[in-house]
Specification:
Elements lengths: L2 H11 L11 E8 L4 H4 L4 H5 L31 E4 L4 E4 L12 E7 L6 H10 L9 H9 L9 E6 L23 E3 L17 H22 L2 H24 L6 H7 L8 H13 L4 E7 L16 H21 L6 E6 L3 E6 L12 E4 L3 E6 L7 E3 L1 E2 L6 E3 L4 H11 L9 E3 L2 E3 L17
Parallel strand pairs: 1-7, 1-8, 4-12, 5-6, 5-7
Antiparallel strand pairs: 2-3, 4-11, 8-11, 9-10, 13-14, 15-16
Helix pairs in contact: 1-7, 6-7, 9-10
């Protein structure tokens, strides 16, 4: 068997993990735009005391902000917080349902990045580089492990909120990895995958003959050119043919019981985070390795009523609170949570100061981008239950304990899948490219592991 054929067999049939995997699948819930940790998870009573006061100069000197100009005022949260679970996890009143899962999750309040604009920060989180042209986390996972179901793609992407994330399709691209590993963008209304259905008048038998003919032609070309991508393309044709039967079945949530729809808040046929959370459960249940959900609309700058932390955040988080909690409970009830790693968060955090775009405050209230400290959480897949990890200072500006970076998160996710993030690589442009980058700074966060 040639190198290309060997690769294709591994890509579709899977490789053995380098160590014992704690997770068989990942569901990554990215709230695109960056949700405010100060309204949801990072309770700062001292910031409430300073509400309305001018920001100290030492917090502004030498700093770059996306929109803040001059001297902004400090902004305490308008929402109440309580402690939940045996660990006493602080959560906002905006999370009445998720707070019931406090003892199932690890809340990480010490995330920090070096990017403060959406697209670069999203690219850094998902591809390990703030520039375009690098492979996504889901692509690396399937490159390392292959797919567990030959009739479905190993990496599926679901989007909601009316827009794709600022980083675009590169957030689920394969870049220099063979294209068979790129994410397949599925929809929750209409055809699940665009252009997957046969055109009118083409029978399944005719489609089979067409693929066989292309396979023969590609095999001839592959022998002449010796390009592994030719073999990968043949594999994609075969997968697309099988997906014509398998994908519509998995993506049809209308057959779910009424009690499930009530729990998630789903509406079959519509595009929503709730629908995508239910689809994520169905996908991992059927052997998909990596499900990436992007929900757009979490960029609460306070420039209008649509992005105000009082008017807009509450209704937005209400549906997310219900759907994400239902996903965790559903996975647990089905015995899937222990083997499914669930990750939630955004690309950075929000400032402890009120945004004053152009140097003046408007009628609405919001926060600017804040890379120095933000919150994410993880659950299932070998992660500790009921853990509060990391701390920030009294106003939530800087991390003061157990700093964790996107590279640390990437290393931990790969490790839980049974992959060595330091050894998983692909030769390209003279380097052994890795998700975690060329240096050794990325850490598997063993403090989070059960």
């Amino acid at each position: 068997m040639g190198l290309a054929n060997a690769f294709l067999a591994e890509a579709q049939g899977g490789k053995k993990p380098g160590h014992t995997a704690k997770a068989k699948a990942v569901i990554f819930l990215h709230m695109a735009g960056a949700p405010s940790q100060l309204e949801l998870f990072d309770y700062k009573p001292e910031l409430v005391k300073y509400d309305g006061k001018p920001c100290p100069d030492e917090l502004l000197k030498g700093k770059r902000f996306a929109f803040i100009k001059g001297v902004p005022r400090m902004l305490g949260t308008p929402y109440k917080f309580k402690q939940y679970g045996q660990a006493g996890t602080w959560m906002s009143e905006l999370l009445p349902q998720f707070s019931t899962m406090a003892d199932e999750v690890t809340v990480i309040r010490s995330m920090s990045t070096d990017q403060f604009n959406h697209a670069p920060a999203q690219l850094f989180l998902h591809t390990g580089n703030p520039r375009f042209g690098f492979a996504s986390m889901g692509a690396w996972a399937t490159y390392g492990l292959g797919t567990a179901n030959e009739d479905l793609p190993g990496f599926v992407v679901l989007t909601s909120g009316g827009n794709n994330p600022d980083g675009g399709k590169s957030l689920w691209g394969s870049a220099f990895l063979p294209s068979v590993h790129q994410g397949v963008h599925c929809r929750s209304h209409g055809d699940p995958v665009l252009y997957l259905s046969d055109p009118q008048g083409m029978t399944r038998g005719v489609r089979r003959k067409t693929i066989d003919a292309m396979k023969d032609l590609n095999a001839m070309h592959g022998k002449q050119a010796g390009d592994p991508e030719t073999e990968a393309r043949m594999g994609q044709y075969e997968l697309a043919y099988r997906m014509q039967i398998s994908v519509p079945k998995v993506m049809d949530i209308s057959k779910e019981p009424a009690v499930v729809h009530e729990a998630y808040g789903t509406e079959p046929g519509k595009t929503s985070l709730a629908n995508n959370c239910l689809l994520a459960r169905r996908l991992v249940e059927n052997g998909v390795r990596f499900v990436q959900i992007f929900d757009w609309g979490w960029d609460h700058h306070g420039t209008s009523k649509r992005d105000d932390i009082q008017y807009a955040l509450r209704p937005h988080i209400r549906s997310a609170d219900q759907a994400v909690t239902a996903l965790l409970k559903d996975l647990k009830q089905r015995g899937l949570l222990d083997e499914t790693l669930v990750v939630w968060g955004g690309e950075f955090g929000r400032t402890p100061m009120r945004e004053n775009r152009g140097g003046t405050e408007g009628a609405f209230v919001g926060r600017d981008h804040h890379p120095y400290a933000y919150t994410m959480w993880m659950a299932g897949g070998g992660i500790k239950k009921g853990l509060n990890f990391g701390e920030t200072d009294d106003i939530g500006y800087y991390v003061t304990k157990n700093k964790m970076t996107p590279r640390d998160l990437q290393a931990t996710v790969l490790h839980q899948l049974g992959l060595d993030p330091h050894k998983l690589h692909y030769p390209y442009l003279g380097l052994n490219q890795r998700l975690i980058g060329p240096t050794e700074e990325a850490r598997v966060m063993k403090e989070l592991l059960a």
